[in-house]
Design a protein that fits this description.
This protein has one domain. The protein is about 10% helix and about 25% strand. It has two helices and six strands; from the N terminus they run E-H-E-E-H-E-E-E. It has helices at about 20-25, 50; strands at about 10-15, 30, 35, 60-65, 70-75, 85.
């Protein structure tokens, strides 16, 4: 990841019980709200993210706060992480 010169941060969502491991390896926990496409949506019916977020579509985005999210600063500092909702533009990984 660090060999890719155009990345500002590594981004990681994980379970609470593995957060200490990632923090020991240099990742930093941040508090954010994530928006994603529901896992229940079959892959063959997934629409482009810009379509999913339109008001007239029947697919609603999942908005989740509180799940562990960590970043690894590559070209920017942890303090430079921008505020606001993180839109995954698809399913959570």
């Amino acid at each position: 990841m660090r060999a890719t010169h155009d990345l500002e941060y590594g981004y990681l969502g994980c379970r609470e019980d593995v957060v200490p491991f990632y923090e020991r390896t240099g990742w930093h926990r941040i508090r954010v709200v994530e928006r994603s496409t529901p896992r229940s949506l079959p892959p063959e019916t997934m629409m482009p993210p810009e379509t999913v977020m339109r008001a007239e579509t029947s697919v609603e985005a999942v908005v989740e706060a509180g799940s562990p999210v960590l970043i690894s600063p590559i070209r920017q500092s942890v303090d430079s992480w921008p505020p606001g909702v993180v839109d995954l533009r698809g399913r959570p990984w």
